[in-house]
Design goal:
This protein is about 40% helix and about 15% strand. The protein has 10 helices and 13 strands. Helix 1 packs across helix 7 and helix 4 runs parallel beside helix 5. The structure holds uridine-5'-diphosphate-4-deoxy-4-fluoro-alpha-D-galactose. The site of uridine-5'-diphosphate-4-deoxy-4-fluoro-alpha-D-galactose has 21 residues, from helix 6 and strand 8.
């Protein structure tokens, strides 16, 4: 079975590529390398460098390979940036996947797993968040993902393209082999920033707000290990193909940790007294985001293997301390 992974040079994409290869799938990677890294792509998978909005590029990939299914990670994903540059997010995140779907249709590819996000919910109505809860994004990034979810729904109705939409909460950690991990430039995610402070690459980590209505005043998030996410992609793909039926799942651990708890856990894992300072709130941050992942657990038997923050941060620390400059030589 041959799977095309779009955005396979990115953080979650590269971990899913490894997972697929380890389960004996044939994998083709397409990535424009704008935010992805060539070095993140497993050597067993051929890498096509190009943009999903480029139809000639996609035609080349789909004619050189008989693709059975697609997993689409290719998108910009910074919430803050999306508020400042909405055009960039709508043009790329909707335009890229729409062009991909057009080409899938032309080449008779019927199955897609799509990376969506907790940002589709906006400020949650209930905790834990269920897939059936109201979606009301508070930023263009979330809205661009929700728009694609709607496009997928109508492409299923009209053309029979079956999808699995996966709404991730906070991806964390790195591959157990230590060969790939998180590398965003500039970095904005909490755990890599804490570990950069541990390595002395930053003076400190800023805790964005300590006056939220939570026990310790800092924001609470649901962290999920990147290889547990990768596993969920493979399971979702298999089930979607087997049952020829579309589906939408949340992916989290069902447990929330505050920013202060994450800093404390990182201090324990690294043995370093990582400097932290309270800073003002970051615009647009909901105080608490916790997923209910009961649906994917019940329907697919998915089980996260990493439960504790310490386990997740240990794998991230193993990556960051051995690759302080990420994928740069
Ligand atoms: N935070 C800090 N200091 C930092 C960085 C982050 O205190 O230097 C805090 C944030 O305010 C937030 C928490 O740490 O409360 C997690 O922040 P991240 O930036 O790591 O992650 P987000 O929760 O903002 O973003 C994640 C995904 C997005 C997704 C979003 C949904 O990375 O793709 O959840 O809300 F859109």
């Amino acid at each position: 079975m041959k799977i095309l992974v779009c955005g396979g040079a990115g953080y979650i994409g590269s971990h899913t590529v490894k997972e697929l290869l380890d389960r004996n799938y044939e994998v083709i990677v397409a990535d424009n390398l704008v935010t992805g890294h060539k070095g993140a792509v497993d050597k067993r998978a051929p890498l096509y460098v190009g943009d999903l909005k480029d139809e000639t590029f996609l035609d080349k990939v789909f004619t050189e390979h008989t693709i059975d299914a697609v997993i689409d990670f290719a998108a910009y994903s910074l919430v803050g940036e999306s508020v400042i540059e909405p055009y960039k997010y709508f043009e790329n995140n909707i335009g890229g996947t729409l062009s991909l779907l057009k080409k899938m249709r032309e080449h008779g590819v019927k199955y897609i797993v799509f990376s969506s996000t907790a940002a589709t919910y906006g400020e949650p109505e209930n905790i834990p968040i269920l897939e059936s809860d109201r979606t009301n994004p508070t930023n263009p990034y979330g809205d661009s993902k929700l728009a694609v979810e709607k496009i997928l729904h109508w492409f299923d109705e009209a053309y029979g393209i079956k999808y699995a939409v996966l709404r991730y909460f906070n991806a964390a950690g790195a591959h157990h082999s230590g060969t790939i991990g998180e590398d965003h430039k500039p970095e904005s995610h909490l755990i890599p920033i804490i570990l950069q402070a541990a390595l002395g690459q930053r003076s400190h980590v800023g805790i964005f707000g300590d006056d939220y209505p939570t026990e310790d005043g800092s924001c609470i998030r649901d962290y999920i290990h990147v290889t547990d996410l990768a596993d969920a992609h493979v399971l979702s793909l298999e089930k979607t193909m087997e049952e020829n039926k579309s589906r939408t799942y949340n992916l989290g651990n069902g447990k929330g940790f505050s920013v202060k708890q994450v800093v404390e856990a990182a201090r324990r894992v690294t043995g370093i007294d990582i400097p932290a300072k309270i800073e003002p709130r970051r615009a647009g941050d909901p105080s608490v985001l916790i997923a209910s992942s009961d649906k994917i657990i019940k329907e697919l038997g998915w089980q996260p293997k990493y439960y504790t923050l310490e386990e997740m941060i240990s794998t991230a620390w193993n990556w960051h301390k051995n690759h302080p400059n990420g994928f740069e030589e």
